[in-house]
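Moderator note: this is an archived Q&A kept for reference. The question asked for a predicted structure of one protein chain; the sequence and the answer are reproduced below.
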Amino acid sequence: MAVLKDHFLRRSPHGRPARRSHPFRPRGTMNLESRGNAARALRVLISLAHERPLRLRVSGHCMAPLVLEGAIVEVEPARLYWPGDVLALARSDGQLVLHRMLGYRPSIRGFELVTRGDASPASDAPVAPTQVLGRLCGGNCAPSAVRVPVRHRLWAVASFLRLVIGRLARTVRS
């Protein structure tokens, strides 16, 4: 899984990258549950992303070869996310991950997003749109991760339809 590291890379006043860790977060992978205020921390990150794209370091191989481990990516929020978009989101365990969106599914609280890493065999647990930090908009990654080609969008839709058909087949059998 592509886990986003806990520090942000910002530009210094002189235009050079300046590495700064947030003073209230422990070192290591970013785990929003570690402070017990996951929703508030995510809202703060999203508000920061509205000002300018956040630069985050990726740890993991689930989005390889488009986004490699150690890559620095930029993430910014969008009004609507489409199947095939690469999103940074907070999982239910509080960890920030970078995965491709496959589609939306209805739930009691509205719609949830279904995501999966490109190199992952199974999809993630659905997440609420409020858990999405933003869409990949640049950084040290393949151009097709930012400007998603039609074939990647079709792959995402086909993967989502396979999940839906599999769920329907299990429901009919039982």
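Archived answer notes: The chain has one domain: 3-173.
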